[in-house]
Structures are given as C-alpha cells and as structure tokens.
Amino acid sequence: MDFQKQGMSIFGVPSFVKAPVVQPDGDWRADIAALGVPFDLGTSYRSGTRFGPKAIRDWSTRFSILSTDTPGYWDIRSGTRRGGCRIVDCGDVDIVPLLWEENFERITRAVEHILARGARPVVLGGDHAITLPVLRAYKDRGPITVFQLDAHADYRDDSGGVRFGHGNVLRRVCELDHVEKAVCIGVRSLRQQQGDLADHKAHGNTLICAWDVHKHGVEHYRSALPSGKNVYVTFDIDAMDASIAPGTGTPEVGGLTYEQARRLLEMVCENNTIVGLDLVEVNPLFDPTNITALLANHLLIETLGFLFPG
Ligand code: MN
Ligand code: MN
After folding, report:
1. Could you tell me the distance, in angstroms and rounded to a whole number, from the CA of residue 80 to the centre of ligand 1?
2. pTM of the complete model
C-alpha cells in the first residue's frame, strides 16, 4: 500500500484528499477540481480565512481514499460506494496582498480554466467575497441559481463605501446577468438590516431563517429549494451552529446542525445540476480543536457522495 497516497493521513503532501496537484491551465482531466483561494480582504471583523484552504486541505487527508485508484468511500447510510470520481487539486490562486481587484481577476481566470477543462470547481475559501469573482467565470454558462447556506444574507449594497466585501457578495452576485436568483438558508444574525432583507425579497430571492428550519424541519422546505436548475452552491461555514463551527470570523448562535445541512445539500444535489461550489469563511485562527476544518471536510466529502452516488 502506498501510504503517501492513501491510508495514513499523517504522511504525504496535504493536497485536497491527496489528489494530484496540477496547474489550473495545465493538461489534465478530472470531474472535480479543488481550488484554494487564500483571500480575506473582504472580511469586516476577524480576519484569518486566508489560512482556510490550508486548514481544510490538512483535514481532507483523512479522506484520501477518494483519490486512490479505486476512488470513493463506503457510505454506511445508503449502503453504496460513493464519491467515485476523478479529483485534482489546482493549488491556490496566487493572491497579492491588498490588490483586491487584481486578485478577483486571478480568481476568475483560474475558475475559467477549470470550467474550460470540463471539471466542476470546488473552491476552498477565503472569505465570502470570493464568490463574486468565482461566479463571474460562469458568464456564458447561465442561467444559474445560487444556493447559499449562511447565517447572513450578505445583501448589503454599500457598507460604509465598501461594495465588494463579504457582506455585499450576494447582492453583487445577483446583479450578474447570468444569475437567476438566490435561495438563502440559515439566516439568523441580529445584525441584518430591514432594508437589505426587503431588497432581497423584492429582487425575487428566497430567504429561509435558521429558526424556521429548526421548527418545521428540513423536509418542509423541499418545494422552496431549487429544482431542475443549474445550481452553484455557496456554503458559508457560519451557517452552521457556532458550537460545531467556532472557527469562523463572524459566528452566530442558533445555527444549522450537521444533519440539517447534510440533508439540504442532498436534496439540492439530487434535484439539480450542480455546476460548482465553494466553502468559505473557515478561519483556523479561531479553531483550536480543528473541528471547523473537520466539519467543512465532512460537508464537502458527503457532497461529492451526492454528486457521484455510485
Ligand atoms: Mn455568514
Ligand atoms: Mn457569507
């Protein structure tokens, strides 16, 4: 057994699930391409998500079985072998300190390369601001519905002159011609502004609060979730309850449980074509036990299981 590649996660170079490392514009073939975006210039409170990709990759080596010659994992719940797909790791976008516009262009270019090779990107953030340049890469691939899991709607038009931070990102994303609408679930922050939420609704988007998920259950919202669409999933880890996701810049109490988030992802993956996804706002500087990085990986691995059910 090649312990460097599979089995023992304590050995080897920690690419995402120990997948081969390639350049985004290289000559490779894969179904899934991981891309790290160590960018946190969009953060309004506690910075540090620039270390997110490293933290996620480090724990992802626990799931290195996905990148072996017989990929996939045995899913006890479904009694099937899942997640069998070809995965590469495109490394990190070369982020330049402070030049956010240049960084946005680099992010868009990297994702364009991945899409041009016919792979689906799995983007490891970084703060939530990166979702705009990622989605810009889908310019000729619309219409796209964005499924957002988040404690915040991120729909502020202008935050003291800032329009491209992580609190503005869904507003900017919904302004893209190729984005049809956003379905946002898990919102519960007490710092949301009435006007932003009114705009969110007026623009035809759907918003489902965390307490309603707790009260009615996930299945109750099946008809509110996208169906038959091309869906991009943007997962802000602060959608999850702060007790299991402390490692994030703007945690909120009262959040989603693992089972709720898992089932939401399962339903959205089953009923739509998933064109790509990101997982953002993991901040290892506030994650002393690494539970947030572990949680992030579980969400990603099970999503791969839903996309490639075997
Ligand atoms: Mn958030
Ligand atoms: Mn967010």
Report:
1. 33
2. 0.97
